[in-house]
Amino acid sequence: MKWLWILGLVVFLECLVRIPLMKIKTLRETLMEKNLVTYFLEENTDVQSQNVTDDPQFTLLPLRNAMALVYFGNITIGTPPQEFTVIFDTGSSDLWVPSIYCSSPICRASRLFNPHLSTTFQHTCKVFEFKYGSGTIVGSLGYDTVRIGNLVNLGQVFGLSKRQIGFEVAPFDGILGLAYPSLALEGTTPVFDNLKTQGVISQPVFAFYLSNQKDNDSVVMFGGVDHSYHRGQLKWIPVSKTHFWQIAMNRITMNGVAVGCFNGCQAFLDTGTPLLLGPTRLVTTIQKFINATPSGREYEVPCSSITQLPPFIFDISGNEYPVPAQAYIWKNPQGRCLSNFRGDNHHSNKVETWVLGHVFLKLYFSVYDRGNNRIGLAPAV
Known about the structure:
With 381 residues, this protein is mainly β. The protein has helices at residues 10-13, 30-33, 191-197, 280-289, 325-328, 358-361, and strands at residues 22-24, 59-66, 70-77, 82-89, 95-98, 122-132, 135-148, 151-166, 174-177, 205-209, 218-222, 235-238, 241-242, 245-249, 251-254, 257-260, 265-269, 276-278, 293-295, 298-300, 312-316, 319-323, 329-331, 337-339, 341-343, 353-356, 364-369, 374-379.
């Protein structure tokens, strides 16, 4: 990996140590393409059922969405607070926002963090490069106070962008990663881990309810679980690797016929990815099952299929999670019906890996329990 040079104003020129930092993850590539933006853990757990809404160490933050393709909410950084919209992303671990040092045209349409206006900001000599499916972010690291709802996180490291490539149609400012520390920039502590270690939250959990509605019906919650957002009991699935939110999956079937994950596989739950991503060779076969035909970089399906095709069944830890055609086929504003399956070769070729994005997570309320390294799923209300 080649060395990065330090960009920006005089405050950054004093730094002599240049540290190249890079991370790769899959994010919403199709924002631009679509012209839009058998083992369960026991139930007696630390995820308590008391009225968390009365707990000052719990926050429930409304999320907005753009065509149910990308979900984002507000945080503030600095003293006095400067507000930004960010994706709360279980597929990455770092926090970054645009800064006044950003020279890219896209930054002119974003809110920019100004470190000179914050009395609690501390700059560092470290630079970073984040590579996502939708673009690349280059900048420098700093520390400041980050607020999520009523939760105050002191001395949080975050990235100040100085160059942004891609994200031209993104309706958000930055990204707040919620995956494990092993996925974060070396030597940094992610937001959620600081919330834990600083005692800001009483329970080391967060949860997502994602809705198709445009208004503030979707939420992310930290420090507990509001059980009014799901039906039935949560089913707990152990995390198979503490990096992404990764779990073991048994198989994927349609009409009782296996169409993927034939001998078991791995899956990531990713709130930063709207689609169902899998190995390209298997996804190509699935497109044939649903009579999808190539249309540019997408696959188009007859709209009549939405009421005719059966669900795909995702078998996870012996539980079946149906995904109906109304979820895996998307009708865009132009009236075309498109498959929400997409081939993805970003992840390991040695182990079959799937990414379960919004298509799956809008159907199932999801809880991410760092205290027990597990994920809870239940049908969303």
